[in-house]
Amino acid sequence: MKILASGDIHNDSRLAERLAEKAEKEKVDLVILCGDIMQFDKGENIIGPFKKKKQRILFVPGNHESFATADFLAEVYGIKNIHGYSVIYNDIGIFGCGGANIGLNQLTEKEIYDYLKKGFDKIKDLKKKIMVTHVHPSGTKMEKLTSFFPGSSGVKKAIEKFQPDLMLCSHVHEAEGIEEKIGKTKIINVGKKGIIFEV
Questions:
Q1: SS (H, E, C) the chain
Q2: Which of these, 71, 119, 123, 193, is most buried using a 10 Å CB contact count?
Q3: Helix axes 153-162 and 109-121, enclosed angle (nearest 10)
Q4: What does the pLDDT read at residue 23?
Q5: What CA–CA distances, in Å, run from 187 to 18, 37, 55, 90?
């Protein structure tokens, strides 16, 4: 399965169009958006370019979309918000948690862990698992690149307990493209330019 993952679009409609074109050109099977699609709940048609090209989309809200706005986007565009949920594509389980441990849509570390556990429990028996969040795990290189955004101990605990094959996040713009590992889990800050990978 070929996936394009991006985050922190922050209402940049031209960027959304470029990403949708890249996804079409590279013939990706799935687009995953790791939150902060909009800018403080305001935004133009950021999902539209992907839908126009008939791309399948999963997303979690960031700290710039309210959970109500995320549900609205899911309903209007017919896309999947996996905040606290999971999906299965080609025997790959994908589960997620949106929001962050700071800002508008602040969650406690326990809430972050509990949402991830809720999604994971439905796909735990699958061989391949991908975890999607907006916020990065605590104790990582990503956390050291910012003095404003603390990493999440709830995300880190979920990685250690559930050991997904891959964990995708965004949130720290300066950490775009950084890859690191916690145990067997590969963690990638997908950034706004996005990455394409195969599972």
A1: CEEEEECCCCCCHHHHHHHHHHHHHCCCCEEEECCCCCECCECCCCCHHHHHCCCCEEECCCCCCCHHHHHHHHHHHCCEECECCEEEECCEEEEEECCECCCCCECCHHHHHHHHHHHHHCCCCCCEEEEEECCCECCCHHHHCCCCCCCEHHHHHHHHHHCCCEEEECCCHHHCCCEEEECCEEEEECCCCCEEEEC
A2: 119
A3: 30
A4: 96
A5: 24, 20, 24, 21
What residues in the chain have per-residue pLDDT under 70?
Answer: 39-44, 144, 146-148, 173, 175
Euclidean distance between CA atoms 69 and 87, whole angstroms: 20
> What is the pTM assigned to this prediction?
0.92
> Which tokens hold the place of 125?
């028996």
First to last CA, the chain: 5
pLDDT tens, residue by residue, 6-38: 998 988 889 999 999 999 999 999 999 998 887
Domains and CATH numbers, the chain: 2-198 (3.60.21.10)
Distance CA 149, CA 137 (A): 11
Please give the Cα distance from 118 to 152 (Å, whole number): 17
List, for residues 105-127, the tens digit of each pLDDT value: 789 999 999 999 999 999 999 99
